[in-house]
Amino acid sequence: MPALTDLLFYGFAGLALLFGFLCVANPLSRNPVTSAMFLVLTICSLAGLFVLLNAFFLAAVQVLVYAGAVMVLFLFVIMLLDLKEEERRKLNKVALGAGTVAVAVIAGILIRAVTSAKPAADKLVEGTTKPLGRILFTEYLLPFEILSLLLLVAMVGVILLSKKELK
Amino acid sequence: MDSIKYLDPTTQFVLFSILKVMLVFAVAMTGVAYSVLVERKVSAWIQDRPGPNRVAPFFVEFIPVIGPWLTRLGIFQPMADGLKSFLKEDFTPSYVRKVYFWLAPAIACVPSLMTLAVIPFGSTLGNAANKMVIADLNVGILYSFGIVSLGVYGIVLAGYAANSKYPFLGGIRSSAQMISYEIAMGMSVVAVFLLVGDLNLSSVVDYQRGGLHQWLIWKQPLAFVIFMIAAFAETNRLPFDLPESETELVGGYHTEYSSMKFALFFMGEYAAMIAASGMMVTLFLGGWSSPFGSEPAGTILGGLVHIGWFLAKVAALMVVFIWTRWMLPRFRYDQLMDLGWRRFIPLALANILVTALIVAFTHK
Hints:
Radius of gyration of chain A: 20 Å
Number of helices of chain B: 15
Oligomer: heterodimer
Helix content of chain A: over 70%
Shape of chain A: globular
Radius of gyration of chain B: 22 Å
Strand content of chain A: under 5%
Largest sheet of chain B: 2 strands, antiparallel
CATH architecture of the largest domain in chain A: Up-down Bundle
Structural class of chain A: mainly alpha
Largest sheet of chain A: none
Number of helices of chain A: 7
């Protein structure tokens, strides 16, 4: 009999794949809001996978940031746009081809990364806040600070672009 | 009781957890029903009228003195209200988006109940292993913020599902409002956890249980004020009830809803208030500890007293929520956004900076 964590893994992974499929190619509805809601469910299933990896902090932040903030803004924008055209749109063959190529390339990178990775069993870190914060502010301090700078630049850029006239 | 001791620890844990979930759910739902009554009574007293004072089952009038007194207090009103929402016609307008119209009330109600899972509502009951919290998570506060941030979907989807203009405007308003105030709320809490040094809510209570002078409200008054006001905005309570704002939007996001579906939005709002009060009690007002200082209880009676303290504090904050609603007029939408983004977020950031400096210089 497989262990409970294995069952949960297959459950969450299956749900993530199913919801992800329904997000991009829902046969029942071409409504963008429905797609966005399935993306939220995909994100929540991924959070479940993070919990199974003992990465509680990542799981909580995944739900908090992606499902709770980013996707709400997505919904906000989708609802404000007039999307009647999107619902009528037919499948575009060129876009389908381009999409397939892009997915194939990403899948190739993923397979290479997975096969070349070594199991990190000797350095298991429980993903709670304290060890995570310690590692972020010691070993990975420089990348962390560069990332925050990048976010700051993005924020300033957005404000600059969205302001019509600068005083 | 003895047969429980022979079960293995996992089974015991599962059994106790199920028991705690059911108890918390029952208490929260009763709390929701009776806070509606308190809301109606308090509003009545503030406006100098009696409020609900008639409803009673037929046999109550035969009980001398106590019977009429209970009736005058409206103790039986919530039962009549609940029955009414089940028995009324459940009308679905022809133009709504059916799937979302059915889903939205449930999505609005569930997150506020899920938040209750991480709030420690008592110390221990019986032996030290029976902690009075459903899920003692290490990332407790992050979990509750994550769930709270999902609460906005119920309202947004309700506005979208109704497929008409006023509910839609209500839904759009709520998504912007809740995201803005979530940031201020999250920022204000950071300062608290800088002092405590742990994200686990049980440790926050442990930090404060020395007595009234240890409560974090004295060390972080600014964080408490910001958190409380943001909680009003997150639960869509006056003065921030812009999403339903009946003078401008008819009924806002729940305009098209009737009977039990409408009641679910209502229950969701009150459950969210209870969860927010519980969170404030845990973070700033000492949680289950008494004002005179408490140790985790060794006896069943002591454990019950601690749960009593917690419930009393939550009830007091609920009254503040209700009282405020009948005292203040509604904000304008631009005022709401201005207050959130240009006052509270900078204030909360400054609070984090000052607290961090103090902690860095005194903590050795």
